[in-house]
Amino acid sequence: MDDAFNPKPERSGATRRSALGLILGAPLMASCASMPQFSGAPNSGLEQAPAPSGPPQQPSAVGSGQVKVGLLLPLSASGNAGVAAQSMRNSAELALAEFQNPNIQLLVKDDAGSAQGAQQGAQQAIDEGAEIILGPLFGLSVPATAGVARARGIPVIAFSTDSSVAGRGVYLLSFLPESDVNRIVDYSAGTGKRSFAALLPENAYGNVVEVAFKQAAARKGGRVVAFEKYSNDPTQMQTAARNVAQALPTADALLLADDGDMLVNVAQTLTASGANLKRLQLLGTGLWDNPRVSADPNLQGGFYAAPDPSGFRGFANRYKAKFGAEPVRTATLAYDAVALVAALARTQGAQRFSGSAVGGVGKGGGHGRRTSLSSASRRSASCTSAASSAGAAPYSRAVTSAALQPDRAATADTRSGGSTRRGSPRAPPRRDRTPARNDSAACPRAPLRR
User: Fold this and answer.
1) Which is deepest, 23, 47, 207, 397, by most CB within 10 Å?
2) Whole-model pTM?
3) Nearest Cα residue to 208 out of 15, 44, 370, 9
């Protein structure tokens, strides 16, 4: 297994730690690395499926192995979703190319970003012999896919960020906002912050962040001194910002959870309302990992949970060499998913995608069940901990921040630490999702990537 996955370019060495338990890799990325992001759906809007931009793409197959794997992506969707889907398809192809002699054939289906399209694509893939389904990308499409798959006993590994859609036979490999919030609040509390404020978007993403934020603050013995949500209406945003700004003198940390231009606009509105953002600790989620955010002077010095640039840079270089373009960050999910099923197909025999094999990755096959999102409970300094030298070769050279979760109970269990354990299939060592500081001048300073 160590030598089965051997891309020709460099490995990132000791900084690469990816957990394949209920969490697959929680990498760290300093904001000074300007990498392509997929900062629209599904993360910022949390599963707002787009309209199709054209007719569905024709089904295709990648690879010639005997083990068939369905891959559902919104290839004909409009906007960022379609761009991300094509990048994810390319990454899946790259994963097959870099896994030595994979016995896998990918059956690629365009679900157009809709539940109906996902249901049809899943049915087609299963009728063609798919033993497992990778995708869909959007949470609204997962139940339709799961219904078809469960009827045939086929597991699903979806890329949704909506943890509520996980269930029996349905696993998630995705960037979860709950993980970001838990990690960054724990980090802030670890630096002595106890009074928290938050200004969040009035949408599904903001709702998930709100619950995680209030729970995390309470768990750390903190208090929430100000909390507001805003819509896209400028007047309503100004009112929310003014209310938070008035309470900020009693807070020592402020959470802002939006991306790109909207986050910049929120920070400007707060400043115009009299908030002094320099006197308190600014906190963010992975959506901050955006060049527009890192360039904004109002947000300089803020901390957010984000992936490690080293693993992604190596992956991006290989991707660009093969496809002539930069990948979006979401593409690494498809890469890891394909690498995972290729490894299971090689090591698990006829039981390769059984509940014990796929679920066992999170329930003891790799790390114990209680490793789900467990990086939230670890100190930021552990980003260069001994886990990085545990010796197990990671499945993925992309090293994504992802959680592979079979049920909601596992999703909620975020506080346990736990040491690296090996099992079958062989799991890579865990890595923490450690805050990066939004300060490019300080990026080289490890281990906090400040």
Assistant:
1) 23
2) 0.69
3) 44
